[in-house]
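tokens incoming
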């Protein structure tokens, strides 16, 4: 133990410490990047219809704020009971592809849902729930509510989005995490997200 402390107090100890810290930072960053790339490469793809957002909140800097039809989850879709006590919650949302090609909510739960054929399960970001009544909608986010665009190119997307002409292609991991793969205007790809 004394020799370790002596090395740390010498110049070589500081160099060794710096190398270890730099290595750990590299591993952590690599893990974050690989996690996102893995979802984009291997996740199930779903197409989501966007919903209008107040245009005053739409563009902040170089990203676009997105709202989805699936962000408002009807309480009637909740299976397994609704927590009575207020608190922080996560909602698992089962999506199924519709005839128009877009995916919609068919079931949700405050407990993890089992996988079923021809469905995808999204896991919401944690949110506060203070009690729900029948007929309510649960407002959730999935971590895909921002899309970064090249500088100065948000206005045409804003106009198309407000006209209901923007869709987002999303990849979903088996754990329910989502990443935006691309943005479509009038059914045509406008932006594709690179893996790295």
């Amino acid at each position: 133990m004394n020799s370790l402390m002596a090395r740390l107090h010498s110049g070589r100890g500081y160099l060794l410490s710096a190398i270890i810290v730099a290595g750990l930072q590299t591993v952590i960053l690599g893990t974050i990047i690989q996690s996102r790339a893995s979802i984009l490469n291997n996740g199930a793809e779903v197409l989501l219809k966007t919903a209008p957002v107040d245009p005053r909140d739409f563009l902040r800097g170089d990203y676009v704020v997105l709202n989805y039809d699936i962000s408002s989850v009807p309480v009637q879709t909740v299976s397994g009971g609704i927590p009575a006590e207020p608190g922080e919650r996560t909602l698992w949302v089962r999506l199924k592809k519709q005839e128009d090609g877009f995916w919609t909510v068919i079931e949700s739960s405050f407990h993890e849902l089992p996988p079923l054929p021809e469905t995808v399960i999204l896991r919401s970001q944690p949110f506060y729930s203070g009690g729900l009544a029948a007929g309510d909608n649960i407002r959730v986010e999935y971590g895909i509510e921002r899309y970064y665009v090249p500088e100065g190119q948000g206005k045409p997307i804003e106009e198309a989005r407000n006209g209901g002409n923007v869709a987002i292609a999303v990849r979903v991991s088996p754990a329910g995490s989502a990443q935006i793969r691309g943005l479509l205007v009038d059914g045509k790809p406008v932006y594709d997200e690179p893996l790295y």
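note: The two ends are 43 Å apart (CA to CA).
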